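Hi there,

I know you've been waiting on this one. I reran it after we fixed the sequence typo, so this is the corrected version. Both the input and the resulting structure follow.
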Amino acid sequence: MSAPDTNKKKDAKRHKGPLMGMVGVVIFAVILLGLLSIYVVNRGNEPADSTPISEETESGGAVTEEIQDAQGADAQEE
């Protein structure tokens, strides 16, 4: 069933505000998505921790003294 009395000009006038609001929300969401993308790309260039994974231990990422000593010996040889 269709509406008995339709006035397209009147309906267009009534719906203009809500439609503009929806367009504004979509534009705002696109801007936020763009800012998030820029943030993620820029953040991806900087390592969070400079300690290589192979040097981390199960105790929370601390380097043991033995590894440090071995690295010191390797650095002196070069």
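Quick highlight: The chain has a mean pLDDT of 76.

Best,
R. S.
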